[in-house]
Design brief:
Number of strands: 19
Helix content: 25-40%
Largest sheet: 4 strands, antiparallel
Order of helices and strands: HEHHEHEEEEEEEHEEEEHHHEEHHEEEE
Number of helices: 10
Length: 439
């Protein structure tokens, strides 16, 4: 079915007659397709009302409702208000007197030739509530607006025009912008442009607002090194949106919706780089992994238009334990904050910092050695089980892989030193401890 008329043939070109192969109804203002003769949808097809009472949306129809809406145009404001009042009387519940007040305050006096003019004047300004630290993305209900609509973007936000299928188009910084073919050329290219002499047309895109405040997320990478050692890397990232146009062209930004998951978005940008990094390593030290992983994550996110504040790397593997955490630049608390902390808390912080420095020095001096403390002492890395499917290191007691969900085979470990023991072996090959009872 054609997008713009009742023909069962597809429009193969958004602005012209497609060399006779399809409909030529895609220019706004055509009442009939000049190619196939079928009736065209009106210029405001796809438009509607956002953030309004349900009864108002049902009365006027448009996108987002199955109701055909009011159709006795032209109509004055008084006639439209009377129509809503009549619909309220017919409905037993679900409406309030405030619904009519809402419409009266927002609909200017005048005579309206069609529903499109109602939609145009009531959505003449697009403005979203300010985003806060708990939300990075906010989108509107509709995805089609009249050309000439004003888009207002807050001081700490960017806006991206997003199509009906989630494709991203034009980007707008803080301020007020009039949406037109000149200011939104990418969205206009997929919209129904007006035929000569017809002034009305609609952009088939709506704004998605993105905050420029700092956000937090994580990226997971895993695999085997060149030497066959399984390694898992988790990067915890603090970032902000720096270049919305570049972000819109990135793998994460090509399709967006208001329910964007930050971790999935970061994975689409940086997981491949982390996996490639793991595959290129050969018996690396923790410090080397940390430095390389931080660089890989930073470069991947910055290439997608994101600014990176901090990257914290956690490494898992047989030599490193499960979740050995190392931060490139450990945070330091101001002296006035430290002065208010209990002495035992400060002592624990200092001990943790000293422990980290000792492990880093030992790892740098002998990258092939295991730097675990004696079994049972604080900070001892737990033995891990490597997933047979994706090679991600998992905690010994984990029944399923934390990365791919595959069931993990049972494995024995020495109760004394934690060394992995093959099935059927009675004594640990590392310390000689009996691991199974005598027959």
């Amino acid at each position: 079915m054609c997008d713009y008329c009742t023909s069962d043939r597809e429009c193969t070109n958004p602005t012209c007659a497609s060399n006779g192969r399809g409909c030529a109804c895609s220019l706004s203002g055509n009442e009939q397709c000049p190619s196939c003769g079928h009736p065209c949808v009106p210029w405001y097809w796809g438009m509607g009302l956002d953030d309004c009472p349900d009864i108002v949306r049902d009365f006027f129809g448009g996108d987002g409702t199955e109701s055909p809406g009011f159709d006795k145009y032209p109509a004055t404001k008084a006639q439209l208000l009377a129509g809503v009042r009549e619909l309220q009387a017919d409905m037993e519940e679900g409406t309030t007197p405030e619904d009519l007040v809402w419409l009266d305050q927002r609909l200017p006096e005048g005579t309206y030739p069609d529903a499109g003019e109602v939609f145009r004047v009531m959505t003449s300004v697009l403005r979203a509530p300010p985003l806060d630290s708990t939300r990075w993305v906010r989108g509107g209900y509709l995805r089609t607006f009249a050309a000439g609509t004003r888009l207002v973007v807050g001081a700490n936000e960017f806006a991206l025009l997003v199509g009906t299928d989630g494709s991203t188009f034009d980007a707008f910084g803080p301020g007020e912008h009039v949406l037109s073919a000149d200011t939104a050329p990418l969205a206009a290219a997929v919209s129904r442009l007006p035929k000569p002499g017809f002034p009305k047309w609609a952009l088939r895109a709506g704004p998605l607002y993105l905050s420029t405040s700092d956000q937090n997320g994580r990226v997971l990478g895993s695999g085997k090194t060149k030497s066959g050692e399984p390694i898992g890397i988790m990067a915890k990232v603090s970032f902000w949106l720096q270049d919305p146009s570049k972000f819109a062209r990135s793998p994460a930004g090509r399709r967006l919706d208001p329910n964007l998951d930050i971790d999935r978005m970061l994975a689409s940008l940086a997981k491949g780089a982390l996996d490639t990094l793991v595959a290129s390593l050969e018996s690396p030290s923790l410090e080397a992994i940390q430095s390389s992983a931080e660089s890989a994550v930073r470069s991947s996110l910055e290439a997608a238009g994101l600014g990176v504040r901090t990257v914290s790397i956690e490494v898992s593997g047989p030599r490193f334990g499960f979740g050995a955490s190392f931060r490139a630049s450990p945070p330091t608390l101001p002296p006035e904050v430290l002065a208010r902390l209990p002495p035992e808390t400060v002592a624990k912080m200092n001990a943790a910092t000293q422990r980290r420095e000792e492990i880093l020095r030992a790892a740098a001096a002998n990258p092939n050695a295991s730097h675990a403390a004696p079994p049972g002492s604080p900070g001892t890395p737990l033995p891990v089980v490597t997933c047979p499917s994706c090679h991600t290191p998992n905690a010994r007691a984990a029944p399923f892989c934390r990365n791919c969900g595959v069931a993990l085979a049972a494995q024995k470990f020495c109760p004394s030193c934690g060394h992995a023991v093959a099935p059927g072996v009675k004594f640990c090959g590392k310390c000689g401890t009996r691991v199974v009872p005598s027959a």
